[in-house]
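Here is a typical sample entry:
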Amino acid sequence: MELKIFILTCGDYGARIVNTIAEQGFASNIVGLHEFPEDMPEFIDDFKSQVPENLPECDLILALDLKGDINMVLPEVAQKSGAKAVIAPIHDPSQIPPGLQREIIESTPDDVLVLFPKPFCSLKPVGNPVVDEFAEEFGRPELEIQTDDLVRKVKVLRGAPCGSTWYVAENLEGFPVEEAETESGNKIHNYPCLASMNTDPSLDDTILHLAGYNIKEAVKRGLGFASRSAVVLEEDCMGDVDCDHNCRDVCPQVKTGAKTITINDSGKAIIDPASCGCCEICIRECPYGAIELIEERMDI
């Protein structure tokens, strides 16, 4: 059965995602689109008055760039449309605060999954059939890369819903393989990524940086190696006896659900070079100086 998507959108960010979904062959999956004006008030007393009329039946609702209280229409829209999942990606720390997220989830029917991926290009399959069908095509980037000394061909297996992955893939071809990781980060800025450069207090990093880490990880996995990464000096790591692995607690990638820092059987921290964003937060926060940034080829 074809996935039916209803989209609530506002502004340039939402328009870019709608265009990408359509350009990648999913225009027929969009059964309806409602665009809210960009000057919506931050606080709304009567949510139901803002619910679009004549809602189509759908499987998945995408809420794109809705800010503040207008997001409270989502439970009502989900109930009336029969949707089984809602995805409301966050690209700015102030967009949908944690308290509002909880209120939306609590007001939504129990059989409807509500997700707030931060950013949208962090979305991965979660075991929900509706979300997973969408996330097969759109979400955390995955690339297949053919190389010799140069990047010869890049195939997008899963792309960021904003379209940046396809842009990066096209513009990496011809670069030396040793430069591909760094260039992928440059290209996402050139696109440009529309995620915020304001520090997210729950991550101690910016959402734009997270998007950059995601495309770099896709490139590193596609190449089979990383060019730089934070590395734990096992003999100096005291996380098992003292700091309780502070590095893992402060890692922005870990906070988004990635397994960037894990603990081995000896109780020592290990950093995955594929998903390490080289933000250096763990280096600054390690009380024993047990983490260094290494710039050399590391096989994945």
Q: What stands out?
A: The chain has a mean pLDDT of 95.
